[in-house]
Amino acid sequence: MSALKIKKGSTSHSAYNLRPTFSDEPETHTLAVLVDNEPGVLARVIGLFAGRGYNIESLTVAEVDHTGHMSRITVVTTGTPQVIEQIKAQLGRIVSVHAVHDLTVEGASVERELALFKVAGAGEKRVEALRLADIFRANAVDSTLESFIFELTGAPEKIDAFADLMRPLGLIEVARTGVAALSRGAE
Length: 187
Prior knowledge:
Elements: E1 27-36, H1 41-52, E2 55-65, E3 70-79, H2 81-93, E4 97-102, E5 109-120, H3 124-135, E6 139-143, E7 147-154, H4 156-166, E8 171-176, E9 180-183
Antiparallel strand pairs: 1-3, 1-4, 2-3, 5-7, 5-8, 5-9, 6-7
């Protein structure tokens, strides 16, 4: 006779229900991937996303350790929790990948992005664009009689909000760097 007694009809204590339950709702995650700084590594990482139909919302890559020849790839992607777990596991299997950190679930992190906005306008629209730029602490880095180029740094939501407000004022073009992120704290 078994020492473990389970009520009839109860599945909450079944050994078959030990897998975590995932939702089907898409989530946005920021992944920090530490890789060897060598030719082809970025192509392999991007190939993983493209080959499986995963979307990349933001991508930044830069060397972070010159002597150790290491680069950091920061990827913002969206998917169900199962898809995010698959992405992390598959990234971890790439030979040139040293670490994969999901900054979204590992605790508090700081995310920033740089964007340039070209806004054309005259009269009241020009004045309003300057007023909004001041509120958002955007810098006018170029000015002609017909247009401005504003530089703005902040969280992606701040960048999006500024773009939404500039559209009716004559937003012509936007260039964004993509998200750079670090986890908070001493580790």
